[in-house]
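Design review, sub-item: ligand-bound model
Attendees: FS, YL, KQ
YL presented the inputs for the heme C complex:
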Amino acid sequence: MKKYVISFVVLSAMCCSAGWAASEPPLPKGYHSWQKSGRKIVTDKSSLFYGIHYLYADKKAMQGYQAGNKFREGSRIVVEFFNIKGNSSADGPLNMIVLMQKDKRQKGTGGWLFAGYSGDGRPSGLDPLKNCFECHQKEASHKDYVISTSKDFVR
Ligand code: HEC
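KQ shared the predicted structure:
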C-alpha cells in the first residue's frame, strides 16, 4: 500500500475546492525524490507549455519509459510548470502541476487518471477528457498516451 501523508495544503483543497472529486487524488507526496527530467523551456507564448517545466517519474513509470512507453498499473508521472522570469536563466514562480497515474478504472481516458493542480497543489477541476486526454491521444496513442520518452530523463 502506498501511503499518502495528507498535508495541510491537500486538506484545505479537499475541504474547500469545488473542483475536488474522487477522480482527483492529492498530489503524490515526495515526488521531488523521483527521477527528474532535464530543464525544458518553451518560449512560444501561444503554446500551452509556455514556460519552464520538469518531469518527475516514479520507479514504475521509469520502467515503463525504459520498456518503450509501456506502463504498468500505478505508474505515476508529474510535471511542474514555472513562469519564465526575465532572461529565462532562472525559474519564475511555480504556476501549475499535472499528474498522470495509470489506473485501469479510467477507461474513457486510456487507462490513465489525468489531474491538474494549481501551483499550491489545489486540484484545478479540469475535465480530464477534454482538457487533457484529447491532446495526449492525438500526440501519443501509439506510446501509451505518454508523450515524453526515456530520452527526456537523460541529463
Ligand atoms: C495541447 C496538448 C496537451 C494538453 C491539452 C495536455 N497535455 Fe499533457 N503533455 C503535452 C505534451 C506535448 C507533453 C510533453 C512535454 C515534454 O515532453 O516535456 C505533455 C506531458 C504531460 C505529462 C508527462 C507525461 C507525458 O505524457 O509526457 C503529464 C503527466 C501530463 N502531460 C498531464 C496532463 C494533464 C493532467 C493535462 C490536463 C490538465 C494535460 N496534460 C493536458 C500536451 C498536452
